[in-house]
Design a protein that fits this description.
Layout: E1 2-8, H1 10-23, E2 27-28, H2 43-65, H3 84-135, E3 140-142, E4 149-151, E5 165-172, H4 176-186, E6 192-197, E7 202-203, E8 210-211, E9 213-220, H5 223-235, E10 239-241, H6 247-283, H7 286-303, E11 307-309, E12 314-321, H8 326-340, E13 348-352, H9 369-378, H10 389-404, H11 407-422, H12 424-427, H13 435-442, H14 444-461, H15 482-487, H16 529-562, H17 566-597, H18 609-618, H19 635-682, H20 687-694, H21 715-724, H22 729-753, H23 756-780, H24 784-826, H25 843-848
Antiparallel strand pairs: 1-12, 1-13, 2-12, 3-4, 5-9, 5-10, 6-9, 7-8, 11-12
Function: Essential component of the vacuolar proton pump (V-ATPase), a multimeric enzyme that catalyzes the translocation of protons across the membranes. Required for assembly and activity of the V-ATPase.
Family: Belongs to the V-ATPase 116 kDa subunit family.
Main location: membrane
């Protein structure tokens, strides 16, 4: 990775950045960090792009509202030229204006149509009220005082010759009861209300929602009651419609409403057809337009990070780029200059020398990307630091499988991951806005390897949905007679393949040849299965953990060699690996020694590994009990030497590096004193000339910059900054002390931490067995048709609990524990993760990160 400086002609800058965006291997630096975003050169162009994006979002919303398909482009369109931006703006403005005008007209027509529909129902049902009143001319209302009589009909009059007024309208059905109650209370019972429900759903003219509505007619007497009724109708948002008193006029109005409704239906149909044609034509080009606008916006946003050199009439940009890709970058710049017709002057690429830490770039593919994300979640690798991803790619799914080990569950996980892998093209954008799905889909290859490794470890454990399978035939045979088996609830199988006790009661039950692969299925029937598997799994967990920690320490050697930290090899790596080997590698040797030396005949006399390790630390070797006896002759002397060697490693690591720093600082100080004396003697007569030459810089064609001020550094500044980098020795002592304590105590705690491999494996196996016995076995234990029906019924809860508890919850638990083992126990031995990622300016990444609304 190198820092480059670009000199771009203003006319060719856009085309050059476009070519670099298609290439996607350059990360630009912001050379205007103190300039406000609204004060940059191309802020107007960015705003124009944002306005075009707003119009395209509106267009996409309207297309989805009409449920029209949006077609993806077959090819990736190139970024349009700057002059084409005006044509795009004109096209989008025309579409936006036309679509808004269509929507406005359609809304007005639809509102008018809904009002006329309500008026039609209002007139028809009001006419029914009056027809009913004319059919019963004796319908008379008497007031409480008996002073006047009101006759309902076409011409309503009172005893004093006054007419009865009325108001008709439409109100939502759920408000009708409250509406009537309010009329009764406000008008003190001096109104008469008739109502009828509209059978069809009516679209409300104001909200556009389809609701059930009711037609009402309110009869009243006098202007005061009329004003009250109108205010109540307004308060309940009832739609009031005119209704003539004359029956002939009502019929004419109804005929006119029907005619207008027919005309509006035709106009609305034509408007909708025109809208469909506009949207259908736009849907074919929508994705292409969105891609073009995003590219234009990204180019101008990138150009806002450049310096505008007015004197040289060019843009100056700085970027990080891989050294191996410089030829392709120069070719892209040349191509961009030619495409823009920039004349004879081409863009210039100049490599810069800097002490700033470059970004970390990893060449990844879709298979390794998920594993790299796991590593980067801990911390991005420091530049040129060894990347743990190639090792995590294998060890992470393996440690997960050690905890998850069930071949049946692993098969389900593998099938799910294979489905995502084989259908990844169709699934890529399907649920892209769903965060949980995005996490699962992004880690599909991790899940695939976790499933495959789980099948492998499940076969080793001989565990398939908590049951064992007998593929090769058990190595054990039950040689007891029927009388013994009927008399005893449990029997002990003889584990020794020969008559070690030389008695007539001996029966050979073990063939002497182990089960070819994994655990013998006979252990599925044993009462001491957990005791046996716990012992094996605990020892394997310790072996796996110590080997992985030792591998991490050896990887630190790679970093020391690469960064030329020779002193760290002798002062850090050697004491670390010696301490680890003296105690923990030795423990592995004892484990294998115990496995190969003690068989079934002397199993009860085998010393305890835990007690042996404690005695080794305490330098205590008691003869009793048997578990405290030594494994071999000379063990006491060897273990004492190993403990002394481990103890020596502690001050070795604690004092070595600080003492080395003190020695190097003294050498540097002595060298600086001698150099200054020599320079004073040589420059005694020409000090002024020498000072003038020093301020000219180091080398004319090399650009050395301060990482803080980004200004040119001369010799004085370099000398001052070199002394600033010297850390106070008290901080060195404290840091080294913390590092030493963390490592030596961490070796013990991390080794114990790997026992989680055994603990989670035990928990998963026991949960699976509980589900089998307490759920599925209920149905399998019945015979006949009843058993078939019961098995069918209990299969659903068993499978649901298996998926949600054992696959999802236990799988997530094993995933998090495997992640912790890699971050804390493994990567802490060699990985600092103090870098920052290489994020190139790439159109492909820009378009991939943009979610597609489903």
């Amino acid at each position: 990775m190198t820092l480059c400086q670009l000199f771009l002609q203003p006319d060719a800058a856009y085309a050059c950045i476009s070519e670099l965006g298609e290439l996607g291997i350059v990360q630009f630096r912001d050379l205007n960090p103190n300039v406000n975003s609204f004060q940059r050169k191309f802020v107007n162009e960015v705003r124009r792009c944002e306005e075009m994006e707003r119009k395209l979002r509106f267009l996409e919303t309207e297309i989805k509202k009409d449920e029209l398909p949006i077609y993806d482009p077959e090819d990736n369109p190139d970024a349009p030229k700057p002059r084409e931006m005006i044509d795009l703006e004109a096209t989008f403005e025309k579409l936006d204006h036309e679509l808004k005008e269509i929507n406005t007209n359609a809304d007005a027509l639809l509102r008018n149509f809904n009002e006329l529909t309500e008026l039609k129902h209002n007139l028809s049902m009001t006419q029914a009220f009056f027809d009913e009143a004319q059919a019963n001319p004796v319908a008379v209302l008497e007031d409480v005082n008996g002073e006047r009589e009101i006759e309902l009909g076409g011409q309503a009059t009172t005893s004093v010759g006054m007419k009865l007024g009325f108001i008709t309208g439409v109100i939502p059905r759920e408000r009708m009861v409250t509406f009537e109650r309010m009329l009764w209370r406000v008008c003190r019972g001096n109104v008469f209300v008739k109502q009828a429900d509209i059978p069809d759903l009516i679209e409300d003219p104001l909200t556009g929602e389809k609701v059930h509505k009711t037609v009402f007619v309110v009869f009243f007497q006098g202007e005061q009651l009329k004003n009250r009724v109108q205010k109540i109708c307004e308060g309940f948002r009832a739609n009031i419609y005119p209704c003539p008193e004359n029956p002939h006029e009502r019929r004419e109005l109804a005929m006119g409403v029907m005619t207008r409704l027919e005309d509006l239906t035709i106009v609305l149909s034509q408007t909708q057809d025109h809208r469909q044609r506009v949207l259908a034509a736009s849907s074919r080009n929508l994705r292409t337009w969105q891609i073009k606008v995003k590219k234009i916006k990204a180019i101008y946003h990138t150009m806002n990070m450049f310096n505008n050199d007015v004197a040289r009439k060019c843009f100056i940009a700085e970027c990080w780029a891989p050294v191996t890709e410089l030829d392709r970058i120069q070719l892209a710049l040349r191509k961009g200059s030619e495409a823009s017709g920039g004349g004879t002057v081409s863009s210039v690429l100049n490599r810069m020398i800097t002490r700033e830490q470059p970004p970390t770039h990893h060449k990844l593919n879709k298979f390794t990307q998920g594993f790299q994300n796991l590593v980067d979640a801990y911390g991005v690798a420091t530049y040129r630091e060894i990347n743990p991803m190639p090792f995590v790619l294998i060890t992470f799914p393996f440690l997960f499988a050690v905890m998850f080990g069930d071949a049946g569950h692993g098969l389900i996980v593998t099938i799910f991951a294979l489905w995502m892998v084989l259908k990844e093209r169709s699934l890529k954008d399907k649920w892209r806005t769903q965060e949980v799905w995005t996490i699962f889909f992004g880690g599909r290859y991790i899940i695939l390897l976790m499933g495959l490794f789980s099948i492998y470890t499940g076969l080793i454990y001989n565990d398939v949905f908590s049951k064992s399978i007998n593929i090769f035939g058990s190595s054990w045979r039950v040689k007891f007679g029927d009388e013994t088996l009927n008399k005893l609830d449990t029997v002990i199988l003889e584990p020794t393949p020969y008559n070690y006790s030389r008695t007539s009661e001996y029966r050979q039950m073990y063939s002497g040849t182990p089960y070819p692969f994994g655990l013998d299925p006979v252990w599925q029937l044993a009462e001491n299965k957990i005791t046996f598997t716990n012992s094996v799994k605990m020892k394997f967990a310790i072996i796996i953990g110590i080997i992985q920690m030792g591998f991490g320490v050896f990887l630190s050697l790679w970093n020391h060699l690469h960064f030329n930290h020779r002193h760290s090899i002798y002062l850090e790596f050697l004491p670390q690996i010696i301490f680890l080997a003296a105690i923990f590698f030795y423990l592995i040797i004892l484990i294998f020694y115990k496995w190969t030396t003690f068989d079934g005949s002397v199993a009860t006399q085998a010393p305890s590994l835990l007690i042996q390790l404690i005695n080794m630390i305490l330098l205590s070797y008691p003869a009793e009990p048997e578990s405290s006896r030594t494994f071999y002759s000379g063990q006491r002397g060897i273990q004492t030497a190993l403990i002394l060697l481990a103890v020596i490693c502690i001050p070795w690591m604690l004092l070595g590096k600080p003492i080395y720093r003190i020695i190097m600082n003294k050498r540097r100080a002595n060298y600086s004193t001698v150099t200054n004396q020599t320079e004073n003697i040589e420059n005694e007569n020409n000090e002024q000339i020498h000072n003038t030459e020093k301020k000219r810089g180091i080398v004319l064609d090399v650009d050395v910059r301060d990482t803080d001020t980004d200004e040119m550094l001369d010799d004085d500044h370099l000398h001052q900054q070199h002394h600033q980098l010297e850390v106070d020795m008290s901080e060195v002592w404290v840091e080294q002390g913390i590092h030493t304590i963390e490592y030596f105590l961490g070796c013990i705690s991390h080794t114990a931490s790997y026992l989680r491999l055994w603990a989670l494996s035990l928990a998963h196996a026991q949960l699976s067995e509980v589900l089998w016995h307490m759920v599925l076995q209920i149905g399998l234990g019945m015979n006949g048709y009843v058993g078939a029906i019961a098995s069918f019924i209990v299969f659903m809860p068993w499978s649901s609990l298996t998926v949600f508890i054992l696959l999802l919850m236990e799988g997530l638990s094993a995933f998090l524990h495997a992640l912790r083992l890699h971050w804390v126990e493994f990567q802490s031995k060699f990985y600092k993760g103090e870098g920052y990622p290489f994020v190139p300016f790439s159109f492909r990444l820009l378009l991939d990160e943009t979610p597609t609304e489903g």
